[in-house]
Amino acid sequence: MIDPHIREELLVALDNLPEEAQRRVAEYARTLTARQSPGFATNALLRLAGSIEALDLKQMDEAIQEGCEKVDVDGW
Question: Using CB atoms within 10 A of its CB, is residue 35 exposed (0-12), middle (13-18) or buried (19+)?
Answer without folding.
Answer: exposed
